[in-house]
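USER:
Working in pairs, take the chain set out below, taking as long as you need, and write a paragraph about the fold.
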Amino acid sequence: MCLFSKLGELCVDSRPAVRKSAGQTLFSTISAHGSLLQKSTWSKVLWQVLFPLLENVQSLSSSASSTKDEQTTGNILIHHSRDTAEKQWAETRVLSLAGVARTFNSKRKILQQIGDFPRAWSLLLEHIENSALCLSAEVSLAALKSFQEILQISRESKSDDPKIYLEAPSGEEINRTGETIKSATTKPTPKQEVSDVDIALWSMAWKVWLNIGTNATKPPNDSNKVYVPSQNFLTALIQTFPSLFQHIKPRFVAADLTKLSNVLFSSLSVPVHGDASPFIIPTFPEVTITPLQDATLQAMEVLIQALREGEESMNLMYPHIFDQLLTYSKFGVQAPKYGHLETKVFGTVKGPQVDWVTMNFVPFSERTIEMVVDLYSTSANHSSVIKAHVLQNIIKTFRIPLSLKYSCPSPSTWKLVINSLFTVLDIGLPVARKHESSGMWSELSLTFEEFLFTKHPSPPTLTVEEFQRDEAIDCKVVCVIRDDILPYAGNLPKDFIVKIMEILNKGSIHSATSDTFIVFSAPSYHSIDTESSRKLREEFAKTCFETLLQFSFINQDKEGEGAITKIAVLSLLQRCQDVVKKYVDDERLSGKCPLPRPRMAEMSSVLKAISTLLGSLKRAPKNNVEAGVWKQVINLYPYLVECTTTSSPHVCKALKDALHEYKDLLSAPGSGIPNGK
C-alpha cells in the first residue's frame, strides 16, 4: 500500500518525465498484481490513491500555464504539442484517466465485491464527464475512449459474472492511439437477467453520456469565443451509444429517444473549420458519408432493430424514429444550422478563406431515405404508424427535394426520392384508402403538381437523352395516378380528385404552352425554336391526355368511374379547346413555315379524342350527361371551324371526322338537343 501511495504522489510531480514514468509503473503494477490484493486494500487503493490522483491531476491541469516558458525549456527543442505546462499536464491527465478506466475494466469482478462500488462508479463517470467537456481536444477525446473502455467488458469478466454482458460497438472502434479500426459487426448475447444495481449503474452512464452530448454540442453564444468540438470527438461520442444501449434497452423510453435525437441532431450540425475541411470533407466525385454520419446511421439501425425485436410498448416509438430519419433526409437539400455561427455550404468554398464549412450531407441524406422506405415497408400497417400519419409526413418531406428537382445539390437526390415515393405509395395507398385523412391526399396532390410542373428549369447542359429519361419518370407518375388512384376515386376526397384532374389537364397541354415561336422578317421567317421542340414533353402530354380520355367514357359497369366522369369530361373538353385555339393562333404566326411535328401530332390526337368523346356522349343515357357538358361541346365548334384553313393533311382528316360528329347535334330552333336517339 505504501508503494501505491508513493507512486501516486510521483504521478503529480512537477517534472513531466517523472509523472509519466510513475503513472505507467503504478497502473502496470495494479494490472499485474491487483488480483493478490485483499478487499480492504482495494478499497484503500481506490479512495486513497486512484481517485485522489484524478482530482489532483484535474486541478493542476486546469491551473497550468498556457504560455511557453523559455527559461524552463532552455535551448531544448520540444514538440509543439508539449511546449507548454498546460499541454504537458494534459498528457498526464489522459494517462491517469485511461489507467483508472482500464483498472475498472480489467478488475471489475473484484471491485464489485467492495461495498461502495456504485459510489466509485459514479465518481469515475463524473471524472469522465468533466474531462470530456474540457476545452482541450486531447483530453476530451481521451475521456470518451476511457468511457468506451469501461463499457467494453472483457471476456473473462463476462464468463465470471453472467449478469454483466456487453459487446463491442459494431463498425469503427477507437483504440488507445486515437486511430479508428474496423471491427466485425457483433450481436449482443441473448437476454440475461440484470440486477437492479446493474440497471442503476448503467442508468448513471446513460445520464453522463447525455450530459456530454448535450453540453459539448451546444452552439456558442459569443462569436468571438468559439469552441467547436472536433469530428473525431463527436464520432467517438456517437460510437459509444450502441454499446451503452444494450444495457439501458429494458428501461429505454420515448423521453430517452427524444434526448438521444437532440444529441444526434446537434452533433451532425457541427461544422468543421475551413482549414481542416479539405482533410475531412471528401470532394466530388468521391463523395461518401463521414465517420460521424456513419456512426449516426449505426445508432439508428440499433434502435430500429430493438423496435422490431422489442415489446409492444417499444413499437410505439415508430413515429419518433420516422420523424428522426425524415429530418435527416432533409439535410441533402437543407443543411442544418449550428446556432448563429456563419458557415459556408459544402461545394461553394474556394480556398481556405472561410472559417467554418458545413459538412456534405447528400450521401447521408440518401442513406436515410433508403432506411425510411425499408422501415415503412415493414411497419405500414402498424397502428402507431397509422395514427401518427407517418405516410403524410413521408410525402410532405419528400415534397421538398421533388419540388426543387433540378435545383437539388445532387441530381441523384430527387431521382432517389421519386423512386422511393413510388415504393411507399405502392405499400401505403391501400392502407391510406382506409385510414388516412384528407390532409394526406392534399399533400400528395401538391407533391405531384410541384414535381411534374417544377419551377426550377432543367440545366442547359441536359442532353436530349437525359431529358427523355426524366420525362419517362414524369410519365410513371401519371401511370401511378391512372392505376392506383383514379380507379378508387369513389372512396377518395372529391377535392383531391378535382386536383388530380387539374394536374392531368395541365399536363396534357404542357407541350403546347412550352413552345416558343420566333417570327422574323421575310428572309428568316421560318426560324423556329427547334431546340424547344426537341425537348417537348410529348410522351408526358400524351400519357396525361390518354388518362383523361380513359376516365371520360361513361360506363356504369366499372366501379369508381362514375364519380370522376363529369370532372374528367369537363377537363378534357377544356383541354381540347385550349389546344385547338393555340394551334390556330400559332399557325397564323408561323406563316408558310409548318409547325413542329409534335404540335401537329398533338393536334391530330386532340381532334381524334374529340370525335371519340362526342360519340361516347351521344351513346350515354340521357340522364348521365349534364346540360353544362353539352354547352361546352357546342362552344368548341367555332374553334374547330377556325382550323379548316390548316395545311396539314393529317390534321384535316382528323378535323373532318370531328365535324361529322356534330351532325347529330344540329336541330331546328326550339326542338332541344337530341341525345343520340
